[in-house]
């Protein structure tokens, strides 16, 4: 009996220690479980071995989004690979981009003909997204000014044809996946895009930049006001508030339909998409003297001519453009003190002038457009066939910027891409659509 007492003591000690360890394990596991919150889309991370769904090293999963931009001059597809984060803007890991011409509105009289182009861009999407992700990847088409300017029934038939194609695709497509985008939403989405890409929306205390977009059918301005007077003195429909990334954003935004560069060209030249009496000959002081050529717009082929030599081209064209824009633009004094990015035709014309690099972008002053307009319009028309509209376009851009309230010395940043992502409204609209999916 004396020899067994130590063994009994050891046994009792080990039993007590085991019970204590089991108690600690139970207590720890239950307290951790009560505080655990799964990250966004956590259920999608529970994948089988061999599944090709991408997962980042820090545990955040990737999601894809496919956005079709049906503009007035072409249709573009953006395929975004996004690293999702809780309560923060997603990080764009990669973008695949392709554009085709003409725009969707070119098929207004025969919607069936748009199918080939849509299928071509869908093929790009399917080759860019892993097959295991197709059913979870939202597929969206938003049409802009080109379809906004079409008669309602024609636009409806085009959208319905695209909707049928989308529903047959392997991607996530709903009835609201195909629509005409409101011009205001276009401006807001572009503002979201550029501010996400430069990091302006990653924290509430960071400064955002404004956005200027000059498309073919419409032009937009969007910025976040810092002066309360801007909000108080602006038309009520120019101020919009919205929730995104768990924060409320208030912006000044407006889209001017019909003041995109191609639509404005037609107005400045004195034409219309439904010419009275079928006359399609347009004579303008904004074209090189004695120039004669053809220009197609909105499925109408116009004969365009310059006036006789001897007219002061720049001054005469400037007067004409000022009359076209008179009273149509709301001037905002606050833009003078803000940084702005400018896209689309602002960028393209700066490239034409050699002021910025076509791939890298750069910066331009408002006065650079004005000085170039004066030089091009008044200079020798040695190569009018190459770019006969350059004088008109530059005069229009310079007057448009002044009407917005930008002084000659103000500098604008021009970027076609930021961090290898297109600076269009497509990324912002993709974020917005994903938000609606989460809320549905």
Automatic annotation (TrEMBL):
Pfam families listed in its UniProt record: GDA1_CD39
Enzyme Commission no: 3.6.1.6
Superkingdom assignment: Eukaryota
Annotated InterPro entries: GDA1_CD39_NTPase (IPR000407)
The family this protein is said to belong to: Belongs to the GDA1/CD39 NTPase family.
Entry binding sites for ATP: 216-220
Annotated GO MF terms: ATP binding; nucleoside diphosphate phosphatase activity
Protein name, UniProt field: nucleoside diphosphate phosphatase
Name of the gene: ENTPD6
UniProt keywords, alphabetically: ATP-binding, Hydrolase, Nucleotide-binding
GO cellular component: Golgi apparatus
Active site feature: 186
């Amino acid at each position: 009996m004396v020899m067994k007492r130590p063994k009994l003591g050891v046994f009792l000690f080990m039993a007590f220690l085991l019970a204590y360890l089991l108690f600690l394990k139970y207590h720890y596991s239950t307290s951790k479980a009560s505080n655990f919150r799964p990250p966004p889309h956590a259920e999608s991370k529970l994948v089988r071995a061999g599944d090709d769904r991408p997962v980042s090293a820090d545990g955040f999963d990737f999601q894809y989004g496919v956005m079709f931009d049906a503009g007035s001059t072409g249709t573009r597809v953006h395929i975004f690979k996004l690293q999702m984060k809780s309560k923060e803007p997603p990080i764009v890991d990669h973008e695949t981009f392709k554009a085709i011409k003409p725009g969707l509105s070119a098929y207004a009289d025969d919607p069936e003909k748009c199918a080939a182009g849509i299928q071509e861009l869908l093929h790009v999407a399917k080759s860019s997204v892993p097959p295991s992700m197709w059913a979870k990847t939202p597929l969206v088409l938003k049409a802009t000014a080109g379809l906004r300017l079409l008669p309602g029934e024609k636009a409806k038939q085009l959208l319905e044809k695209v909707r049928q194609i989308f529903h047959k695709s392997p991607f996530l497509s709903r009835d609201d996946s195909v629509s005409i985008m409101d011009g205001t939403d276009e401006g807001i989405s572009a503002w979201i895009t550029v501010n996400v890409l430069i990091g302006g929306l990653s924290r509430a205390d960071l400064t955002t930049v404004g956005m200027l977009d000059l498309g073919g059918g419409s032009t937009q301005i969007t910025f976040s006001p810092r002066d309360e007077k801007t909000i108080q003195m602006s038309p009520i429909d120019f101020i919009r508030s919205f929730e995104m990334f768990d924060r409320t954003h208030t912006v000044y935004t407006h889209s001017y339909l019909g003041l995109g560069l191609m639509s404005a060209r037609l107005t400045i030249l004195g034409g219309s998409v439904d010419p009275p009496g079928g006359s399609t000959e347009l004579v303008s002081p904004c074209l090189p003297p004695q120039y004669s050529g053809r220009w197609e717009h909105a499925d109408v082929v116009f004969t365009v001519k310059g006036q006789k030599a001897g007219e002061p081209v720049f001054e005469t064209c400037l007067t004409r453009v000022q009359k076209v824009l008179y009273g149509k633009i709301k001037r905002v004094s606050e833009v003078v003190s803000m940084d702005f990015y400018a896209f689309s035709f602002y960028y393209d014309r700066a490239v034409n002038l050699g002021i910025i690099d076509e791939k890298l972008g750069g910066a331009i002053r408002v006065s650079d457009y004005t000085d170039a307009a004066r030089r091009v319009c008044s200079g020798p028309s040695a190569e009018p066939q190459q770019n006969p509209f350059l004088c008109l376009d530059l005069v229009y851009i310079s007057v448009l910027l002044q009407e917005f309230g930008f002084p000659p010395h103000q500098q604008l940043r021009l970027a076609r891409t930021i961090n290898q992502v297109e600076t269009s409204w497509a990324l912002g609209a993709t974020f917005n659509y994903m938000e609606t999916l989460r809320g549905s």
